[in-house]
Specification:
six-stranded mixed beta sheet; Cytidine Deaminase, domain 2; five-stranded mixed beta sheet; disordered C terminus; alpha/beta; 292 residues; 15 strands; 7 helices; Ubiquitin-like (UB roll)
Length: 292
């Protein structure tokens, strides 16, 4: 976890109860690391994203799925770290992807910059991120008990090791919900919520698990257009977020057949699309708690 966090000396100001006096302490704090990762395909630079180091191969694999370039493990021949730009020394900030000979690349190789706060910054229009959907979530007949959905944010939070140390990363978790209790299959953390999702999708692709039918993707932040897009491209039928979705996220979820849940907190949640997948609870919960 060394490169995922960094220590920094800080001054902590503490006001008294009336706000008229304060004390200052010099101490050390732990921050979530943020570094650039360059993604290369066939020796050419394809994208640069700001991310938390760690699970970088998963991130690149998931990014390629989200870009609509690959859809199966067989299309990704290899991933390797390249020498960085600093005196030829290995920085672990450049990953080269080798794709199968039949993989269709974009008409022109474009250099994309994505920040850790937004997965689609710099695009000319929203149409630029409407990729071809290889898997059709609308055909997935998964039923998820509402009490299972309500449990997922807390289950996700309990597994966030980096957040516990820094308080500064997002998380995405893939859950199996067809057993007696929700089962966490994969969790990834990153300063960018879209990176966390790409890392989960990339893990699944490298495990040859796509499409991710019958599973729920729980995220720690809000549900944006690009997160719904990533879920749809991976064949995930249910995306649940602890905060609000955007209007375009709800529209895309309805168009692609993804069940979109927002404001999932404690005993209440909102369903913005795909209500038919949300089933009655398996446990006895007060009706008011479910409908609140």
């Amino acid at each position: 976890m060394a490169r995922m966090t960094q220590r920094r000396k800080i001054h902590r100001f503490q006001l008294n109860a009336t706000g008229t006096e304060y004390a200052v302490r010099f101490k050390e704090d732990v921050l979530a690391a943020e570094e650039p990762l360059e993604i290369r395909i066939g020796g050419q630079s394809f994208a640069v994203t700001m991310r938390t180091p760690g699970d970088d191969f998963d991130l690149v694999a998931g990014f390629l799925v989200s870009e609509g370039i690959i859809r199966s493990q067989s299309e990704l021949i290899s991933l390797r770290f390249c020498a960085g730009e600093k005196d030829g020394m290995q920085t672990f900030n450049v990953v080269e992807a080798q794709l199968g000979p039949d993989v269709k690349m974009p008409d022109t190789m474009r250099h994309v910059y994505t920040s850790s706060s937004c997965g689609i910054c710099g695009t000319d229009s929203i149409e630029a991120v409407r990729k071809t959907i290889h898997f059709d979530p609308s055909l997935d007949e998964t039923q998820v008990p509402v009490d299972f959905l309500a449990q997922l944010p807390e289950r996700l939070r309990e597994a966030q090791a980096v957040f516990d140390r820094t308080g500064g990363v997002h998380a995405a978790g893939l859950f199996k919900v067809d057993g007696p209790h929700p089962e966490l299959l994969c969790l990834r953390e990153d300063v960018g919520r879209h990176n966390a999702v790409d890392k989960v999708v990339g893990w699944a692709l490298r495990q040859d698990l796509l499409p991710l039918a019958g599973l729920v993707l729980q995220v720690s932040g809000r549900a944006s257009f690009e997160l719904v897009q990533k879920a749809a491209l991976a064949g995930i039928p249910v995306l649940s977020a602890v905060s609000a979705p955007s209007s375009l996220a709800a529209q895309l979820a309805a168009e692609t057949g993804v069940t979109l849940v927002g404001f999932s907190r404690g005993q209440s949640l909102n369903v913005y699309a795909g209500r038919e997948r949300v089933a009655s609870p398996r446990e006895d919960l007060p009706e008011a708690a479910i409908s609140a």
